[in-house]
């Protein structure tokens, strides 16, 4: 039903856009005059800027092929799917209020087990009357990390870094709701603080949802496109003591096609690295889950380098179990061959806008990811071992994974981006059923933003 509603709204909006272009003359109203813009979606607003709305979206169509550790039997598999298919509606009302509705038809943008008919990636309302402070409430992703703050439209590689897999709860809404205050101080400082109630799958026996607290701070003394120095600090904490929850720490190691939530994937043959935790962790096993992160970036002209480090401690509730510690980091280098600089807004990178409309902008990049976890409870060791009941895994060292990403992005124009990336990975103290501890893959993406 909701798809029909969105389809009808989109058709009406499209008709309005066509009408605006088909007829000459001035559009007038019985109130304040309005301005209609059709470049990059449909945007309508009053000239006094008290009211506006913009209809847009993004479509990311991916195809990947992979083998080795990425499949259980080590043989080649492939996958074709929509990584994201968003319809987005946002705007301003009464000057100080802003709203944003993003509906994901691919149900493949967030974590696992999204509703098969899609879901609201964001449904939020913000009050900006206390500028430079903004207060947002509703469903939206908590802030944690530079790559997460950067829109999925403009992150360099198709998939964000593997270190985020260790702390996926820290920057994903998981069906929950929250309230966040964010703001700037001068031109170089940005900060945010948020409180979130996560979904019912992590609630206690009384139905109380898990609560989460997030903090992020950014200092960027250089904050212009092609001239960036960015430093950031993140912290997130949640209470997991009163509910049964999925404590698994898993990673697709840069290949989403191993296991998608919508579209084709490798099916039962897809293999994900499990570094720690268990699928059904009993009430009282763990008490506190905390993560913190560092972020840094530097850009000069068409060259940029960025990196992040994250660490997480899943603290055991008593002496029966051990804490689960994990950490990860990445370093990324990117260079625009055609000379354009990456856009930057305080706290996040933005789009590369082609200077030459004939050839577009061409960008090459390399990223190295490393993740590891120490789980002496031996859950992951059992999963990644031969699975024989009763085997002693106490001598298994940290489970680790490394990923190399080498890619090319073509920004054909401000709406179309074509990407290709070669991914190769290796793991320590884990193998697939065929005995592989490394794998290779290639991912292609066609992106259209409107």
How would you describe what is shown here?
The protein has 450 residues and is mainly beta. It has a single domain (59-83, 159-449), classed as Porin (Beta Barrel), CATH 2.40.160. It has three helices and 22 strands. The chain has helices at residues 2-22, 146-149, 379-384; strands spanning 34-37, 42-46, 52-68, 77-93, 97-104, 119-130, 133-139, 177-185, 189-197, 211-224, 227-239, 249-251, 273-276, 286-300, 303-316, 324-336, 344-345, 348-349, 361-375, 399-411, 416-428, 438-449. The strands form three sheets. It has a 16-stranded antiparallel barrel. It has a two-stranded antiparallel ribbon with strand order 12-13. The longest helix has 21 residues, at 2-22. The chain is globular and about 70 Å long. It comes from Aquipseudomonas campi. Residues 1-24 form the signal peptide. Keywords: Signal.
